[in-house]
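Notes from the 1:1 (GR / supervisor)

We went over the backlog. Supervisor wanted to see one worked example end to end before approving the batch request, so GR pasted a single chain during the call. The sequence is below; no edits were made to it. Supervisor asked that the structure be written out right there so they could see what the output format looks like.
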Amino acid sequence: MQLSYFQFVLNRYRYGTASARSDGMLLLCGGRDASGTPLSDAYGLLMHTNGQWEWTLAPGISPSPRYQHAAVFVGARLHVTGGVLRGGRAIEGEGAIAVLDTAAGVWLDRNGIVTSRTLKSSNEHDASSDLLRRCRHAAASVGSQIYIYGGLRGDILLDDFLIAENAPFQSETDRVPRSENQNRNHNFNSDSPPFEQYTNNSHETAPGFSTDKKSIDMLTEASAAEAEAVSAVWRAAKEASHASSEDSLSDGIGSESPLSETSPMADDLDDGGSMEPDVKLHSRAVVVAKEAVGDLGCLVRQLSLDQFENESRRMHPANNDQSYSSKKALNRQRSPQGLHKKVISLLLRPRNWNAPADRTFFLDSYEVGELCYAAEQIFMQEPTVLQLKAPVKVFGDLHGQFGDLMRLFDEYGYPSTAGDITYIDYLFLGDYVDRGQHSLETITLLLALKIEYPEHVHLIRGNHEAADINALFGFRLECIERMGESDGIWAWTRFNQLFNYLPLAAMIEKKIICMHGGIGRSINSVEQIEKIERPITMDVGSIVLMDLLWSDPTENDSVEGLRPNARGPGLVTFGPDRVAEFCKRNKLQLIIRAHECVMDGFERFAHGQLITLFSATNYCGHCK
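Structure output shown during the call:
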């Protein structure tokens, strides 16, 4: 085996540093420079999508400079333990444990976010700080646990073995102090807040799933209204469909229309499958918690889902230049090139966006038209089924809840050069408008990001990206209310013209297909979706389009086949057998879809071969 080595030069020489690797990133932390001065900075070595490598400076202020320490990753958090200062003096007290949260871009100690290198005092003696007063020790992480062995404490060679766990926050009243003798060779996680406390600013659990009668009634009422709307759409589609389709589908169920046994796709079903490696989901599905106040404003729920997120790539380049300064006075831009930057500068503010007090929208109809035209030209060049490369962040329904989008961007990176757009793509699964209070902000920001990063930000169509639907569920009314009747109706019409050009699905590494609704009764191959010509409206008679945007899985894995859908006549639900057959026929690992408000923001179906995502919280007073 032949190994190749490459040289990447930092801005200063160092030794005695600690290094750790996570999710394609190598991070160097601390060390000692040529003059013997201990260092406190951290650099990540990252590869851009163009194949170029770059050292990027980690943000925030570390608790203390150090060298001869140890560092390991648990998820997106770099845990730094021990080390010494100039003269071999050991790091003591609060500074013995430090955590770099690469998702939030901050350093943390036992008291929270570090704002200076003056260590915070504590009235309580913590035995685990003494345990970690060491250098030249070994450290490793497995799952959520961190293992530390040996090292030096002064001139004493240590032979102890410590275990810490990156556990959920534990309140001070729940913590049981232990003596140093009790801590030796035992798990010290209950006495080590840096491995627990930083996960939340509050020990309150993120709000769960509300099942009160009022919320259920609201959701039922919303579903009934949607069913009435889709009935009209279905009637128009059925009238325009071919006679053969009418005969087979008029009962709302229809047949599966399986592929011919002699087709090339059928011939490939039993060939053992592709030899290409599987696409892995990242370590967490991220779901926004409900709207909160104060310090809980950016609280999010993190739910284990194999391997899902990509927070560790949220590093800020050392020479970062904020291109879209919020302080810059922005005049009305007449060219699409300047307009989308104006939108980004005003709306992409994950930490400090505030809804306009008077509800007036900052764009007029002329600017909306320019923005739609620029984005439309990009969508027209894209295929109906996008072909994407991993890694990709996938977002479910947003429904005009702009605050949810900002909290997700704040906590897990956002598409800008100061975020993670050079390392990861963004895919949104539709339903950008309706129901919520800020559909205009949601759709205009996503379009502006599409114009700015056309190869990295991807939008596909949802069932609410249709004039017949969003005329009834809030988007049309919001346009009129916030832009005036004349401008509002014009802008609403222009947005819906653009929606007809949106791609309808996306493939990730040819292994995962992402869509808004599902495969329904009519979709048996990806090629059926690829053949849909755009622009397309909901009333043209495409049963494939109706299934793609409107169908749902059955209630659970025990309900197989096809069933009528409570959303309305002509719509169906599909069972796990349909999912398994579709994945096998198309050599897919997984279907990712949105469209349904599900508990915890995601739900597995068909033994994990289908995942439903939903990114809007407190939807119709129900999904909190």
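Supervisor's comment: The longest strand covers residues 38-47.
Batch request approved.
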